[in-house]
Amino acid sequence: MLENKDGKQKDGKRVYEVSEKSLHVKILRKHLGRDLKYFGKNLKYFGRDLKYFGKNLKIYVEGFVDRKTKEWKTKMENKSHYLFTSEVVSPGHPDKCADIISDSIVDALLIADPNSRVASEVFVAGKHVIVGGEVSTKNHPDYEKIVREALIKIGYDGKSAFTKEQCLYPDEVDVQVLLNQQSPDINQGVDQVDGEIGAGDQGIMFGFASSETADLMPSAIFYARMLCDKVYNYALKHNHKLGVDIKTQVTIDYGTKENFENCLPQKIHTIVVSAPSVEGMSIEEVRTLIKGLIDDTGLPTELYDPNDTIIHINPTGRYVNHSSLHDSGLTGRKLIVDSFGGYSPIGGGAQSSKDYTKVDRSGLYAGRWIAKHIVAAGLAKKCSVQLSYAIGVAKPVSVSVDTFGTYVSVNDDVLSQFVMDNFSLTPRWITKKFGLDKPSEETFLYADVAARGQVGQSDYPWEKLDSLELFESLKK
Predict the structure, then answer these.
(1) pLDDT(140) > 90
(2) CA-CA distances (angstroms) from residue 62 to 4, 50, 75?
(3) CA distance 473 to 310
(4) Looking at residue 199, what is its pLDDT?
(5) Extended beta strands in 91-246, E state
(6) In which order are the strands placed within the sheet that holds 83-89?
(7) Which CATH code for domain 83-89+219-321?
(8) What are phi and psi of 462, to 5 degrees?
(9) d(CA 474, CA 191)
(10) For residue 194, what are the contacts with CB-CB under 8 A and spacing of at least 6?
(11) Region of 35 on the Ramachandran plot (φ > 0 left; ψ -120 to 50 alpha; else beta)
(12) Which of 127, 141, 137, 129 is nearest to 101 (CA)?
């Protein structure tokens, strides 16, 4: 231990009194010109790292004696939380309505013509739904009918106890369709003469997986989605009480940054639920109802303590008016909700509205499939996979695996090379692997994927652990 004449003995260990005189001046004068590091620990002084000429003072301290009370203080007394938060929105949220309508169009076109090329963005505002973008297809469906049917399925069916001023009614929706033909310049690069599919655009995509939950999704978004599904499904069946424009949010307490880095959640710290209620329900009734739904969601008892978790339900005290009448929506505006809740980088391009040649969609699914296999095979505790593409080029420009230092047997360089050697990851390979050109009621529908999240649902084809033995071979 470093010598310091202000040091005192306690239980055989040298103790440093935290004072500017003893540490900030004397030790730094002794070690001027370099960072002082001991066991990699930071000494905090009034909540700040001690600094001297821009340098951080780092030193291992078991504790200190309070100069006023003469009581022993441990250095961890004020550091008991490391929090991370994710949110989820229900299909009734205006942004999700836009996603679902967009992907209802994708479904209709691909089911009728699997070679359709689609990019159909949607904007919802008030009673207006605007469909714009580009398509190339042999099928020309009734777009207005698709819009209304999608809204009815979401829960805006005109049968709730909310008035036409409080939420959207399908018979009052005005639909504008502004779809153009996809550029032939893109087509010549995508539909190649050898049968290969070139990437429909350039871009980067990230897949991610974490050992924190059974579905290998990070905790906060996983439990936020559980809660959102619970409240939304209740609202669908009890539209005389709740509306379908719902948001949930979960904060996980990892205790320490080290636990966060090693995928070890300690408890659910805070839950936020906002759900519209009919005019006649008091806020007390609403909060009692939703608190019961939270308790009945099936959150893990080792993480959720109903008497300890902080819970905010409709925190403004009133939430009646909802839907696009009161908040506009746009395709692709909930990318974090659709993916990994902020635990991982995202590529920035939306999945909804696009056919399978658009790597914003197919690349995410491939990245998630790879990352999930790496974690499921016990090769890492968590994993991010980045893919990048050039428009009209089939093979990815780059593939990189990042396990955030949690790899077990082989490092990220080996994992990256393994992925490149074993999987072509062209749009055609991804499409055939997951059946992306054949959405159906029996397999998956893109509209349902938009409603439930692009990843993390065990019934999606890109969530299947069907090559686990190949990945596990890396451990031998």
Answers:
(1) no
(2) 15, 17, 7
(3) 44
(4) 84
(5) 117-125, 128-136, 174-181, 203-210
(6) 83-89, 247-253, 267-274, 310-313
(7) 3.30.300.10
(8) -80, 5
(9) 36
(10) none
(11) beta
(12) 129
Q: Determine which of 197-201, 324-328, 362-366 has the lowest per-residue pLDDT on average.
A: 197-201
pTM for the structure as a whole: 0.83
Q: How far apart are CA 232 and CA 162, in angstroms?
A: 16
Q: Contact 429/391 with Cβ under 8 angstroms?
A: no
Q: Which amino acid is residue 471, in one-letter code?
A: F
Any residues with CB less than 8 A from the CB of 209 and at least 6 apart, and which? 216, 217, 368, 371, 372, 374, 375, 376, 382, 383
**pLDDT of 308:** 96
Across-strand partners of 120? 133
Domain with CATH 3.30.300.10 in the chain: 83-89+219-321
Picking from 199, 230, 258, 278, the residue whose alpha carbon sits closest to that of residue 404 is 258
Average model confidence (pLDDT) across the chain: 87
Among 208, 222, 200, smallest CA distance to 383 is for 208
| Alpha-carbon distances, residue 132 vs 174, 221, 447 (angstroms) | 14, 31, 17
Residue 268 β-bridge partners: 252
What per-residue string of b and e applies to 221-244 under the rule 16 or more CB within 10 Å gives b? bbbbbbbbbbbbebbbeebebbbb
pLDDT for position 291: 98
Pair 323, 245: CB distance under 8 Å:
yes
For 128, the token pair is 């207006």
User: How far is it, in rounded angstroms, from Cα 83 to Cα 85?
Assistant: 7
Using the structure block, give the residue that is written with the tokens 């809740």. Answer: 341
- Report pLDDT for 57: 41
Q: Which residue matches tokens 């906060």?
A: 220
Look at residue 8 and tell me whether its pLDDT is greater than 60: no
Q: Report which secondary-structure segment, H or E, holds 135.
A: strand 128-136
Residue 398 CA to residue 204 CA, distance in Å, equals 9
Pair 414, 401: CB distance under 8 Å: no
Instruction: Classify 75 as helix, strand or coil.
Output: coil
In one-letter notation, the amino acid at residue 240 is: H
pLDDT for 24 equals 41
Compute the distance between CA of residue 267 and CA of residue 34 in angstroms, rounded to an integer.
39
Query: Quick count: other Cβ atoms within 10 Å of Cβ 173?
Result: 18
Residue 182's CB: how many other CB atoms inside 10 A? 20
Question: CB-hemisphere CA count at 13 Å for 84?
Answer: 22
Question: Parallel, antiparallel, or unpaired for β 310-313 and 267-274?
Answer: parallel
Give the span between the Cα atoms of 384 and 206, in whole angstroms.
7
> pLDDT digits over 153-175, tens only?
999 999 999 999 999 999 999 99
- DSSP H/E element including 83: strand 83-89
Measured at the alpha carbon of residue 245, what is the angle toward residues 243 and 246, in degrees to the nearest 5? 100
* Distance in angstroms (rounded) separating the CA atoms of residues 199 and 396: 9
